[in-house]
Amino acid sequence: MRTIHPVALGKHLTFNDSNSVPPMRMMPAARPSRIVVKGHLHHGVVGQLAVRTNDGKVSMVRLGASLTPADVEPFLEREVTIKGMRHDAGASFVIEAQYFFVPTPGDEYFSRIPESETLKQQLERQAYKNSAQALRDIKGKWPGDEDLDTILRMLND
C-alpha cells in the first residue's frame, strides 16, 4: 500500500502518489455567502438537521459555533427563519445556521431558495432555450415559398 502525502502548493492542494498517476489537484472551495431561509426545520438523516422550503427543496443545516442543540430545540418540527452562511458543495449546499427566528409575515420572501448559476451556465441555458424555440417555430414550415428575408424575420422573432 502506498502512502499519499498532501502537499500545499499555493491555493491548491495536491495529492501525489509518486509511483503511479500524475498529481491530482483540488481547487479551493467557494467562499461561503450569507443566506436567509424560511422553512420547516426537522431532523434529517443521521441526526443532522434539514429545512424544507415552500417550494419543496430540502437543505442540510449545521449549527454555527455559537449555537447549541438546546438553542435549536424550540424550533424543531416548526416553521422557522434561519440566518446563516451558505457553503456550496458542487450542486448542493449546506447552511451553517447562526440564528433561528420565529417567522414573521415578511419572511415569506425567504421561503424559496434562489438557484445560483455561473455566467457560463446562464448563457448555455438561454442559448438552448432560444435555439429550441426558433427550431419549433420553423419546423414543418420550410422549405416553402418564403423569400430569405421572411425566413430571417421568422428566426429573429
Q: Please, could you describe this protein's structure?
A:
The protein is of the alpha+beta class. It folds into 3 domains: 1-30, no CATH class; 33-111, Beta Barrel (OB fold (Dihydrolipoamide Acetyltransferase, E2P)), CATH 2.40.50; 119-156. Helix content is 21%, strand content 36%. The protein contains 3 helices and 8 strands. It has helices at residues 69-72, 119-138, 148-156; strands spanning 5-9, 12-16, 24-26, 33-43, 49-52, 58-63, 78-89, 92-101. The protein has a 5-stranded mixed beta barrel with strand order 4-5-6-8-7. It has a 3-stranded antiparallel beta sheet with strand order 1-2-3, with no helix packed on it. α2 (119-138) packs across α3 (148-156).
Largest sheet: 5 strands, mixed, barrel
- The helix-and-strand class reads alpha+beta
* Quaternary organization: single chain
Evaluate the radius of gyration.
25 Å
Shape: elongated
What order do the strands of the largest sheet run in, or round the barrel if closed?
A: 4-5-6-8-7
Contiguous runs where pLDDT drops below 50 for at least 5 residues: 1-17
Query: In whole angstroms, how far apart are the ends?
Result: 63 Å
Give the gist of this structure:
This protein is of the alpha+beta class and 157 residues long.
Tags for this model:
five-stranded mixed beta barrel, 157 residues, 8 strands, 3 helices, 3 domains, single chain, OB fold (Dihydrolipoamide Acetyltransferase, E2P), disordered N terminus, alpha+beta, three-stranded antiparallel beta sheet
